[in-house]
Each structure stands twice: as structure tokens, then as C-alpha cells.
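Explain this protein:
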Amino acid sequence: MDAAFTAEQDEIRRTLRELLAKHGGPREVRAAVGTPEGHDPALWHRLARELGLPGLALGEEYGGVGCTATELALACEETGRALLPSPLLATAVLAAPLITTLGTPGQRARLLPRIADGTLTAALAVPGGSMATALGLTADNRAAAWAGGGRAGGVQARRDPEGGGWRLYGEADRVLDGHSAGLLLVAAHTGGYPRSRTLLFLVSAEAPARAPVPAEAPAPVPVPAEVSAPVDGLTRTRLTSMDETRPLARVELRDTPAELLGTDDAVDGTDVCGALADTGCTAAAVLAAEAVGAAAGALERTVAYVKEREQFGRAIGSFQAVKHRLADLYVRVEAARSAAYHAARDPAAGPLALAQALEAARIVAGEAVQLHGGIGFTWEHEAHLYVKRAAADGLLFGPVHRLRDHAAGRAGLFGDVTSRSLAYGTSATGAAREASATGAACGAAV
């Protein structure tokens, strides 16, 4: 296999890095997370217009660039290096592939061109905040009851007896960019308990167009940024998250009208869980590249700092102990980068590459704080942003030991993951026993 990148791939990475160096610095990132959208809309539209970033992996027939997941991973490595808050992950990595795989020709023609040009953002909403399980990264999404299991809880879907469409009732927590996305892909159960199955539904979250307000009319009362105005039974609340560059939201559906993703004729035969698992593998590869970018960014800032910070009349970077620590971090980053690039070409390796990249990002970010000394612990410095990104990604798409445990179980290295989980049970004691066994298995693998 030729691991070298093409001139076009190198150009994508170079152009994006230069643009983010000018418009995506620490000051711009802090300003972007404070906006109601949680990102800079002007920069997002510029990335879409000049670089075609949201449509990078979409087909040309839908207005996309027609590239592969490799190009998308390279782009996300650069956005991760800058810790750029943007709807790229939720829209282009999670939602767009599902619309491409499961959507009807009409749905694809209606939605994908708007996603490609950046005028429409999307978010994947799964019940219980179990994104990693729904994507098949930490458990078998066919066996796990992540969407409610057909019983009470989760999000339930029923046919609308009047309009002929569907109605959704329930809520989903920790929805990435769910407070600002114009389109929600909601995973819901239908069919009742005997014939329970999980399907994906499209919920438009775009506010209807309003007539122009006359100049003499009083100004409308602004809606708080945390809570969006409900649209046909839809309420979205922006949550306080550990990592502000990863805005999360709670989506509440109260008899909300929805459109089935796909055709009604394929309700019984649609493999939604399989599509989610395939999307999860590709998303894991892209996320691994993004985590590598974040780790590399933290390491670069640390190296630059130790060259300038002096102690005992010399730069602390000249001390042998500091050199050894930085060398270890460099090896971790490069090993994770190699795994991420391999996974971009072979998405089946995505979950393991993601585990390695998340671990590297966590260790590098922690060492960056230590090597920065006292200033690294302050809110004014950007070192804590890298720590929060590494921790938040581990909570949202991991944790690392579960990513490895599930991958090992699928490969048959340490037995079946599902049977072992059932044997341990779901109690606190069982969870501790499972964590102990997982740690031993990961240690043996390393």
C-alpha cells in the first residue's frame, strides 16, 4: 500500500492550515464558542464556499467535491489542531453519510446539495446520549437497548393518522450541535414491543420564514441563546458542556411531525443499525485524525514554550528530562497519526485508531499543562482547552478501554463482548468486574 498523499491531498491540508492560522486562533475560538450557534457562522460559510469542506466526501452529483474519507480525515486533522468549533463533524461525518445510505433519491437531492454548500447543518440525535453505542463503537448496536428497546423511554415513533406521516415523542441528550442544526436525524423505535425496530427520521429544525417587520413596529423580544424557540413540538436546549468547542444540546420531542428517512415500503427491511455501524467506523477514523491534530497542536505549543521559558539561566527545553518527555510525546503522536491514516483508508480499523488517538491526546494534553508550569493551569492559557477536548471526546465517543474491548471482542481475541457483559451483569459490582477484565485484556494486547 502506498501511504504517500497526493498533491491534491497535501494542498487541502496546507490551504486549510493557512486559513485557520489567520481566522481560527485561540482568540477566535473563544469568541466563537460564545455565540448562540456555538461556532463562527461567517467562517463556516467561508470554509464551505472556498474549500467545499462540508461537501468534501459527497458526490459531485449533489454539489460535493467527490473526495473520500481520507481527504475528510486530513481536513479534520487541521480543524482538530486549531480546536475549531464547527458543525463539520455532526453534519459531514455523522449525518450526511446516513442520508446518502438510507435516503430516497428525492431526500438526497433535496438535502445533500444544501449540506454541501454549507447552508444546511445537521445533527444525529440518539436517545440516552449513547452516541458511541448507537454507532457500534463500544457495543453491538443491534443487541444493546440504546434507543429504548421498544418499551417506555427513548424516542417512540407512530404513524400520524391524519397527515399520513410520523409523530415522534421522547427526548435525546448530549446531541452534538443539536441546538443549532437545521436538520435533525432522530433515531426512534416503532412497531411496538412485539415488532420493535429502530428507524431514522428527519425533523426540520429550521424556523419558518417571517414577513418583514415594519420600521415603526416594536422590536421582538429576543429568545435566549440557551433555549431555541419550539418548532411544532420541538424544543432544543443548549447544555453546559465540559468542552465548549463541542456544543451539546437536549432535544425534546412532543408529538413532533417527522419524515421517515427512506421509503415506507422499506420499513421492515431497512438495516438502520448496519448503516449506523458503517458510519461509526468511518466517523471513528475521522475522529482519530481530529484527535491526532489536537495532540499535535498541544505538542507544538509546548515545544515552542520550552524553547522560550528560562530557568537557571537556560531554556528549560535544554534539560535532558524535558527532552525525554517531549520525545515520548512525539512518538505517541506519530504512532496515533499512522493509525489514523491507516483507518482513513480502511475504516474497519477506525475504532482501534480512535482509541489510540484519544489516549495520545489525553496524555499529550496533560503533559502540556505540566510542562507549561503555572501558566498552564490558568484559564487565560489555551492548554486547558486541549485537556477538555481530549476528556470530552473520550466521554462522547469512548471511553478508550471500551473501544478496545469491543474491537477485541469482534475479532474474537478475548471472547464475545455481549456474553461477557451479560455474565457480569449491570450492577455496580458487575461494572467493576467488567472494567477489571477489560483493563487486563487491554494490558495483554499492548
Notes: Strands lie at 122-125, 155-159, 166-176, 183-190, 197-204, 234-238, 248-260, 310-311, 314-315. The chain has three domains: 7-88, 122-208+225-270, 275-411.
